[in-house]
Specification:
about 150 residues; alpha+beta; five-stranded antiparallel sheet; about 20% helix; about 35% strand
Length: about 150
């Protein structure tokens, strides 16, 4: 389930701050041993300045410290050719680590607590990782994990 490149859909996802729970996708970027994962919670929120918009791929704007990987809703994203229903954004500064034990305790039942949406196409996943690990807006500790 927590395999690198997997896209998971939680119904709902409980945020670390405990204040919010809502349906949410999670992209597994890196498995770190058997205890944690480095992951992204993609969003529909487009914070890219209008002059720099791209339909898909990496956006790096060092002058405003913004790194984003854009996933198009018109292109298949998974190896089984699923598309997302809306343009999706993965922001480098929003990467986080999650304890696998905690995730397994909360999300126990596939089809009820979560679904495996699919595995990201290898070429798209490679581009995503490359985009994140070369960015100045991604925390150094996360870049080190992505490079390993």
């Amino acid at each position: 389930m927590y395999t690198e490149g997997n896209i998971l859909y939680f119904t709902p996802f409980y945020f670390k701050n405990g204040n919010t729970a809502k349906p949410k996708y999670l992209v597994v970027l890196k498995t770190i041993g058997d205890k944690t994962i480095l992951a992204s919670l993609p969003t529909r929120t487009d914070s890219i300045p209008a002059k720099d918009v791209v339909e898909a791929g990496c956006v790096e704007l060092p002058d405003i410290n913004l790194n984003c990987f854009v996933i198009s809703h018109t292109l298949p994203i998974t190896v089984c050719n699923k598309k997302l229903d809306f343009p999706t954004f993965i922001y480098g500064h929003e990467l986080d680590t999650y304890e696998l034990k905690d995730l397994r305790d909360i999300y126990r039942i596939e089809g009820s607590d979560y679904n495996i949406y699919g595995k990201m196409k290898p070429e798209i996943f490679k581009d995503l990782i490359s985009c994140l690990k070369t960015s100045k807006s991604v925390k150094q500790k996360h870049i080190k994990e992505l490079i390993k």
